[in-house]
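Here's what a typical entry looks like (Phage tail sheath gpL-like):
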Amino acid sequence: MTEPGGFEQDGAALVDALNLTVLAVHGVSELFPPRSVAHSAADQLAAAIRGDEAPKLRTVLIEEYDGGVKVTARIGVEVAAKTPEVVTAVASAIRTFMASEIDEKVHCVASVQAVSIQ
């Protein structure tokens, strides 16, 4: 099902657009895997065994959550930036993107974790 903005709700184009949205926030230096390294490695191995395309490592994660969606982003923050402000800006950018490109009525929880200061 295609949503406003030309994205499929769970499609690769939506994930790619959200990745770009997060990386465009001033102070973000990196986007990390949405889950632990061990979990990401297991996903990569399982895909290889099945012959599937391996999931992207550095990406946001979109999940159904409480009647809406939850977008998780694990980011690196530039040393010169103020981490709380960058995290808040990323969460705001995610919610704004979802409201403007998908549906302003969709309940969106943005979970942003700063995992590195670079």
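The beta strands are 28-32, 61-65, 68-77, 108-117.

More examples are in the samples folder.
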